[in-house]
Design brief:
The chain is an alpha/beta fold and 419 residues long. The chain folds into 3 domains: 289 residues, Divalent-metal-dependent TIM barrel enzymes (TIM Barrel, Alpha-Beta Barrel); 49 residues, no CATH class; 66 residues, no CATH class. It is built from 18 helices and 8 strands. An 8-stranded parallel β-barrel has the order 1-2-3-4-5-6-7-8, surrounded by 4 helices. Helix 15 packs antiparallel against helix 16. The chain is globular, with a radius of gyration of 23 Å.
Length: 419
């Protein structure tokens, strides 16, 4: 079983993707952005390999305006060498990747131009996968689309328009239930009619359930029959409801106790789980650590080195509890560890705690910082205490110092991203 995350990597330097406004999309600008984004993707892949994350969704924004006529760059030829290099890393590691076109890629629209745009976008996604030289188990996931006041006709259009897709798309296309229009039972009917795989999404099913009342595992098993050997392992999407937002909104983090209950229900089913969650790789590593057969305390200690200052800023008591928890080097209290981290992140920071942690971080620079840098830091801290500056500004300054003095321990810290 592989557990992964989608599109963006949190707290990892040099992994951000860039784009531009349509009016600024010159050939020169697009070439520069594509080069940057491919370097970022390679850094994400390297990070995933180093952290045992072997399931990853590549962002549709990798090539800015990838299916728009404004992008005239023959990027698959210009960047052929790097694309093959990235693809080789993915394949060699055993990683599986996917892509998921956005809400405007609608194959069952009654508008011919929208359908033409959807086909162009699917071709773009397939071209990325093919340029990486990846097999057909690396998929493109698509929702069925809209209802347009007549679901039967909308489904019929999807079936008809699917026939117009090229083989490069067809061999990768997977369809998924959504939270508004198409239930998992309806998507299964479409998937079986087209003989293509179906992805089960648990939160979409929770928000938009079928008339038949069955547990998630029933639908997971039903979807399994749509996956053939050339499609690779069955893949599902897993997310949790954000408690303060509208139904279907993804949670900030995967609550580990809730996830482990779901995981236990899966028993020995051999499938891949794509997490859809705001904190991306942080939740993926959390779930990997709690389900791994290799239970070593150093894995949790490594995680703690990243979380510790963000936890301390929110809850000194939870900070001390976690330190005590990790004292026993013969144990592997993974779930307890992450429960305490989650508890800490439910608490609000205070000015006193934030100042204390900022001063602690500054301690790493004490012997190397210039007098002017110390003066500026103390000035910022004083302004923050008086309400004249934000903690974000204080952290931005500390981050610049971390980069300047190349303190790797702090470069990996979630202190800078958890604001």
């Amino acid at each position: 079983m592989r557990i992964g995350y989608a599109c963006l990597t949190v707290g990892v330097p040099n992994t951000e993707l860039k784009t531009c406004l349509l009016k600024n999309a010159s050939d020169e600008k697009l070439t520069e952005l594509i080069r940057h984004n491919l370097n970022a993707l390679e850094n994400m892949v390297d990070y995933n390999i180093a952290n045992r994350v072997l399931l990853f969704r590549i962002s549709s924004s990798l090539i800015p305006f990838g299916s728009n006529p404004v992008n005239r760059i023959i990027w698959w030829e210009i960047f052929e060498k790097q694309l093959k290099k990235i693809g080789k890393k993915i394949a060699k590691s055993g990683m599986r990747v996917s892509m998921h076109p956005g809400q405007y890629t609608v194959l069952n629209s009654a508008d011919e131009q929208i359908v033409a745009n959807a086909i162009a976008d699917l071709n773009y996604h397939a071209r990325i996968m093919d340029s990486l030289l990846l097999g057909s188990e690396n998929k493109i996931i698509l929702h069925v689309g809209g209802v347009y006041n007549d679901k039967k006709q909308a489904i019929k259009r999807f079936l008809n328009h699917y026939q117009g897709l090229g083989e490069a798309v067809k061999k990768r296309l997977v369809i998924e239930n959504d939270d508004k229009s198409y239930t998992i039972s309806e998507v299964l009917i479409i998937g079986k009619a087209l003989d293509i795989p179906v992805v089960f999404d648990n939160l979409h099913h929770q928000v938009n359930p079928c008339e038949e009342n069955h547990p998630d595992t029933y639908w997971i098993d039903a979807c399994k029959h749509t996956w053939k050997s050339q499609d690779g392992k069955q893949k599902i999407h897993y997310s949790q409801q954000h408690p303060e937002k509208k139904p279907g909104s993804h949670s900030k983090t995967i609550r580990i106790t809730e996830f482990m209950s779901f995981y236990e229900e899966l028993k020995s089913r051999d499938l891949d789980i794509m997490l859809e969650v705001k904190d991306k790789n942080l939740s993926a590593i959390k779930c990997i650590n709690c389900t791994t057969a290799k239970k070593e305390i150093n894995q949790l200690e490594h995680e703690w080195s990243k979380y510790k200052y963000a936890v301390l800023e929110r809850s000194p008591l939870d900070y001390l509890e976690i330190r005590k928890l990790l004292n026993n080097k013969d144990s592997y209290p993974c779930i307890d560890f992450y429960n305490l981290v989650e508890t800490a992140f439910l608490k609000e920071t205070t000015i006193g705690n934030s100042i204390n942690v900022a001063q602690h971080i500054w301690g790493y620079f004490r012997t190397m910082a210039l007098p002017s840098e110390k003066k500026y830091f103390l000035k910022l801290l004083d302004q923050y205490e008086k309400g004249e500056a934000s903690i974000k500004k204080v952290k931005k300054n500390l981050w610049k110092m971390t980069v300047k003095y190349e303190l790797n321990y702090l470069l990996d810290s979630y202190y800078y991203v958890m604001i």
